[in-house]
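Worked example 2:
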Amino acid sequence: MKKKLLLILGILFLAGFAVSETLQELTLKEANFQGLEVEGALKEECASIVFLKEPIAEQKGIYTILSIHASFMPTSIGNAGIKVFANNNAESLADLKPEDFENNWARVEIPITGLVEKNTLKVCAKTSNSITKIQVLEDSKIGYYKMPVFEIEKTVSTTKPIVGREMQATLKAKNTGSEAG
């Protein structure tokens, strides 16, 4: 029990050094996005968002993130979803389901390798039989951020533990994001 407590305290202590920072952010309304609303069962609609790549995006450790604010009605249980595409690419950056949204917000990282001077994001919302209305709200945001990115490595001393015998488990967390040491 003591070891578990020390492990948890250690992780919390290290997490205190991993800080996110907003460098630049704009609402999609500021990018002339009027919002997207799809209503009716099994319907799909898309809307485009144009934004310029800022010079800050080229710096090491800077992440370009689209924060989508959406609502799913009358329920959030079903096969509906939101897809995000960048610069006419046929492969989506994200295929978000309602469970991917926390408090109606989901984050999508936009890889720097796919950005050009003037970029177009296409956001498509598709309803289902149970989720018959989806709204992507205009207060959604795109921004440039510093943030921690943790890689977790887990190892155990045996794959066949025996009750009553001690075994060793190791958990290593490494910050590969901004200001990684």
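The mean pLDDT is 85. Residues 23 and 145 are 5 Å apart (CA to CA).
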